[in-house]
Amino acid sequence: MNDYLIKAITLMALGQYNNVIKYFKAYMDEKSHIPLSKEVFKLLLKACNKLSNDNRTYIRELEAYLKSLLDSDRERIVAITSLLDETRNDLIAICTEVVNIINTNLLKNVEEMREKVLIYNMKGDYYRYMWEVNNDDAIYREATKAYQEAMSICQWNFKPTDPYLLQVALNFTTHLNNANNTEMAIVILKRVIQNAQTEDLQNDDFLKKSYVELVLKYLNESLLRFQNIFNQNQVQIIELMEEFEIDYRSRRSG
């Protein structure tokens, strides 16, 4: 077994994930002419998810703690804000490294359609994680582009009830809603759900049928939540317009 791969797997076994991605990258650079095996890809995905999920959890907890502090506790606010910025930068660094691996190592060595979907979906996820902490328009566009690529492959090659398509739709619409593009998320969810409902699952095995039904449940819940968000936004817009009109009339009459 390759030396870099041994180091990566050993660190994962010890629960020390900080340097794991570096060794996976070194392994893939050294073996760039060889397609990545499914086993190594799964290990890489596990390591990336572990690091990014940990940092996203830390960020949410720090943000909640920061909101709970009183304005008078300036010293603690400054310290936690600094720690929050450091954690956000750590997450961006991890995601940037993962995206670089995807672009330089993974995509060029993948031919199987399902693996391509996994990788483009993964690329969209890591751009989404970056966008969540910096709201950069260019990052948003890259995430959108990656999810669209994954959706396109699914729609051209898989059935409407394919678990890969449903999972990408769930992640993509979450991204759109987070970026206040809720209306587009609703359109996509409606189309995916309607297409899936036309398919007969009776001939599928129990595990696949159960998984599809579970993801469809999540998609329907997301659709309902996004519709509520969209309706609330519309109400707020109407209220603001009414306030503006009242203010405008009062100024003219005054």
Keywords:
254 residues, mainly alpha, Delta-Endotoxin, domain 1, 2 domains, globular, 14-3-3_domain, 14-3-3, 14-3-3_dom_sf, 14-3-3 domain-containing protein
Structural class by SSE content = mainly alpha
Number of continuous helical runs: 9
Radius of gyration: 22 Å
User: So what's the overall shape?
Assistant: globular
Relevant CATH superfamily of the largest domain: 14-3-3 domain
Mean pLDDT: 89
* CATH fold type of the largest domain: Delta-Endotoxin, domain 1
Number of strands: 0
What is the beta-strand fraction? under 5%
Low-confidence stretches: none
Count of distinct structural domains: 2
Question: What report would you give on this structure?
Answer:
- The protein has 254 residues and is mostly helical.
- The protein has 2 domains: 1-109, Delta-Endotoxin, domain 1, CATH 1.20.190; 112-253, Up-down Bundle (Delta-Endotoxin, domain 1).
- It is 82% helix and 0% strand.
- It has helices at residues 3-13, 20-30, 38-68, 74-106, 113-134, 137-157, 163-178, 182-197, 206-253.
- The longest helix is centred in the last third of the chain and has 48 residues, at 206-253.
- The N and C termini lie far apart (83 Å).
